[in-house]
Amino acid sequence: MNELHCLEIDELLCDYVDGTLDGAKRIAFESHTAHCAACKELVADVTGAVSFMERAELVEPPKELITRILYHTPKQAPLLEAIAKTDWLKRWIAPLIQPRFAMGMAMTILSFSMLGKFVTPVRQIKPSDLDPVKVWRSIDDSAHRTWDRFVKYYDNMKLVYEVQTAIEDIKGEPEENAGEVKSNPKKSGESK
């Protein structure tokens, strides 16, 4: 395997500490950390933190805390109990009532309403809007406007290119003339 870089070491660090890194990657990982001081220090810090967490004693929460948590936890929603009388219906309805899903739906509706308000105003479609002649004229007009914009852009780019070429030619001429004068100072003096 090719030699690893520091960014790849960051990605493989968890697998290395957990011992799930395969042979070739593990050898490349250890080879890199042997030569790179920053990565070696990072691996030492992480392995030290993991070993500290493994040595830490499990703490048993007090029974009063568990009782208080259970007392203050709200019971299952009455709406769910009323709607879901059967198990299959409960499996389908339960995720929909979860706050995470409800908040996601609310944000989606808000996003679409903001897009609708700021992007294009919505108006009612009238039967006259569906007249094939009007639809064709609208499409034809849009195509012609797009073509005209393209031609105008092309002409403008052509003009810009011509102007830039002319400017480069003008800038280039004095330097060539100045070079001739500098290289032949005696000839310019002899002609006088």
Could you walk me through the main structural features you see in this protein, from its secondary elements to its overall organization?
This protein has 192 residues and is an all-alpha fold. It has 9 helices and no strands.
Radius of gyration: 38 Å
Task: Tell me the span between the first and last alpha carbons.
Answer: 77 Å
Shape: flat
- How many structural units, i.e. domains? 3
Which stretches are poorly predicted, pLDDT < 50 over at least 5 residues? 181-192
Q: Main sheet? A: none
User: In terms of structural class, how would the helical and strand content be classed?
Assistant: mainly alpha
The proportion of residues in beta strands is under 5%
Order of helices and strands: HHHHHHHHH
> Helical percent range?
over 70%
| Multimeric organization | single chain
Number of helices: 9
Total beta-strand segments: 0
**Mean pLDDT score, rounded?**
77
Keywords:
192 residues; mainly alpha; 3 domains; disordered C terminus
Short description, anyone?
This protein has 192 residues and is mainly alpha-helical.
SSE order and pairing:
Blueprint: H1 6-18, H2 23-35, H3 37-55, H4 63-72, H5 78-83, H6 87-97, H7 99-118, H8 132-183, H9 185-190
Helix pairs in contact: 1-2, 1-3, 2-3
